[in-house]
Design brief:
Elements (H helix, E strand, L loop, with lengths): L3 E6 L7 H14 L4 E6 L1 H8 L6 H15 L7 E4 L5 H12 L2 H5 L2 H10 L7 H4 L1 H10 L5 E4 L4 H17 L9 E4 L27 H9 L20 H8 L5 H10 L4 H19 L3 H4 L3 H29 L5 H4 L7
Parallel strand pairs: 1-2, 2-3, 4-5
Bound molecules: iron/sulfur cluster.
């Protein structure tokens, strides 16, 4: 069997530079080496944002539009919507029966998330079981590889444990134990120096206009010790300098020297970055024109992709049910009469 890659994202709407550098850039490259399935994890979004469910539809389309714009290619890869492939939910249910609660309570990703949200315990049953749903997303395609950032590695580890436990319990190698493909992410923060995020509104969006990029760039935090132009700066501690690296500024060496010597002022440095950023965003979204504003095309591609994904998921579920001896004979003979 050809080795499959699965990766998914919660639909948070328009993508930003952090999403590109942390995931999408890698996804684009992987398409030429593997059979890739990229999933819109809309049910996952409900684990913590169930009160904002009305925003999902718009967010799904905006996110997929950006995926397509950067070069996620529906001819090479499957782009699917989790809720259009109900086998994700059924496998999640079966996995939830064999997953010890302790594995979920010990999950370091959940602990970090709770700390960030200022909570003592999971928002709900679905939130605690998030890694089980993620395991179902990956294993329903029997994926061998999962591209993730370092913070998501524990989730892939739980997926491996669930696969191992299932295969052991039912004495059949139904599921592979998927491996993480670690994405190297350059150090880049939001314009206010905190982690780049939509909720903090400190991001550079992939579809931001030239004016918006300029405005955001000029408001970026810099080295706090460089107040006047002729104060010597510390570029390696400055987020603006990290951005210059990301956009491959050809004069990086000179810029560093001039900052340190107090020859370059922060405003001029940011003006230069804003020009380079606009070019960079254009370069990394080669298909922007093709998909921008074409909602119905994006919707169609998502539905088509989900149709391609479903038979793989159905085959896996059948294998799992057979291994568990719950693919009942009378159902297979067509006597179920309840569907
Ligand atoms: S000149 Fe540029 S790199 Fe140096 S501190 Fe200012 S913004 Fe940062």
């Amino acid at each position: 069997m050809e080795k499959r890659v699965f990766s998914g994202m919660r639909p948070t709407g328009k993508m930003h530079l952090g999403h590109y550098l942390g995931a999408l850039k890698n996804w684009v490259a992987l398409q030429d080496q593997y059979h890739c399935i990229f999933g819109v994890a809309d049910w996952h979004a409900l684990t913590t944002s169930f009160e904002q469910s009305h925003l999902l539809e718009r967010n799904i389309i905006d996110m997929v539009m950006d995926w397509l714009s950067v070069g996620i290619d529906p001819e090479k890869s499957i782009i699917m919507l989790q809720s259009l492939v109900p086998e994700h939910a059924v496998l999640h249910l079966l996995f939830s029966m064999i997953t010890p609660v302790g594995w979920l309570e010990r999950n370091p990703v959940l602990k970090q998330q709770l700390q960030d949200m200022g909570l003592k315990e999971a928002v709900g049953y679905g939130h605690l079981g998030y890694p089980v749903l993620m395991a179902a997303d990956i294993l329903v395609y029997r994926a061998s590889w999962v591209p993730v950032g370092e913070d998501q590695v524990p989730h892939v580890e739980i997926t491996r444990e669930i696969a191992r436990r299932f295969n052991f319990l039912y004495q059949e190698e139904v599921f592979p134990e998927p491996q993480s493909i670690l994405t190297e992410v350059p150090r880049i923060l939001g314009i206010d120096g905190r982690k780049m995020s939509k909720s903090l509104n400190n991001y550079i969006g992939l579809s931001d206009s030239k004016e918006v990029v300029r405005k955001k760039t000029l408001s970026m935090f810099t080295d706090p010790e460089k107040i006047r132009k002729n104060d010597p700066g510390h570029p390696e501690q400055c987020n603006v300098f990290s951005f210059h690296k990301v956009v491959n500024n050809p004069s990086l060496v000179e810029l560093k020297r001039d900052c340190e010597k107090g020859v370059l002022g922060c405003v001029a440095c940011k003006e230069e970055l804003s020009r380079l950023l606009v070019d960079f965003l254009e370069e990394i979204t080669p298909f922007r024109e093709k998909y921008q504003g074409k909602e119905s095309l994006v919707e169609e591609l998502l539905v088509e992709g989900s149709k391609k994904a479903r038979p793989i998921a159905q085959e896996t579920l059948e294998k799992a049910q057979k291994a568990m001896k719950i693919a009942y004979q009378f159902v297979r003979e067509g006597k179920e009469g309840v569907r």
